[in-house]
């Protein structure tokens, strides 16, 4: 029973650390549709098996294994006292005096046990300390490298004035379709846009900057999941979508994500036309203004109507294209993957004589872009330390962080992005 509890607790802890950005991406399998926390992580399970066999074979005495286990349990209890005192102050809003009294009372008790257990460090207790340091080092390297990468994106955002100077066509060819540009930035234009345009001067008619955020709450209500905003003025057809998940939400393959995204953008376009706070003649003030779009209000909405719902045999049949070559490739992909099914929803702008002509035109462009196909664009980054960096930083970034990134799940896999519609843009980050 104790081993099963440790395995389940390890899975849950790793999942929450990954959601908070403190652990490399691993495969998480949800083994139950009714119980949210019932998960299985193959990589962690193999690591636990190897460590268990190593400890059992290395130690020929159960007393030494007991010393390692006892030191681990007492260390956890000792750390829990500190965390409990913080919870009493910041979460429960108790007085500092009460938290201090609780901390001092239990601290003396745990210190007496922990000091007695520290005498067993040389008799097997060192295993718990070594494993703790290894996992702390992994978490520190991952968090440090991720923070540096995010800071690089933040400092190298594409200036909005540069985009406005190019005009609604962005100075390139705007091809039919919707381009979903994934980025960790919640505001501003990521550098992947300029890097992509520099090498391939063509982009989709509708651009959506998608930012997936895991916030430190267990669950996010459906009515607060989508935040939609506009990056530039209406003719640019550039939007921003922030998708928020809690660390206990099931981020499985959402078959209706594209449909929900289109409906959310349509809702925002309608709301923007009637809400005075969203109408501004200054194009530079658009970015940063977001609106919460409820996914539960689509049925009562009049922005788009559903024409038909059909079932298809693959995950990519939702996306249609006028290109015969691309259609043949998708047909071949469907023949190889007959087990995946998803539905196709076609939209139409309702006949409303009171609708603003510019709003109707924008909605029609959005529907046409959806029918032309959805393309997912992500950055395939290589993080390198600068030449002027210290030896320790080069060791952490060039070896530790790079090793973890190469041996963990890719962001496209974690976000359940179909490979047939994915474009990865290679970039080198000098942090």
Automatic annotation (TrEMBL):
K+ potassium transporter integral membrane domain residues are 2-164
How is it placed in the membrane, per its record?
Multi-pass membrane protein
Protein keywords: Ion transport, Membrane, Potassium, Potassium transport, Transmembrane, Transmembrane helix, Transport
Its localization reads: Cell membrane
List, for all copies, the residue spans of the domain called K+ potassium transporter C-terminal: 176-430
Gene Ontology CC annotation, any one: plasma membrane
Q: Report the principal subcellular site.
A: membrane
A Gene Ontology molecular function term of the record: potassium ion transmembrane transporter activity
Membrane-spanning residues where?
Answer: 35-57, 69-90, 96-114, 126-145
Q: Which family does it belong to?
A: Belongs to the HAK/KUP transporter (TC 2.A.72.3) family.
Q: What is this protein called?
A: Potassium transporter
Which species is this record about?
Answer: Handroanthus impetiginosus
- Taxonomic path: Eukaryota, Viridiplantae, Streptophyta, Embryophyta, Tracheophyta
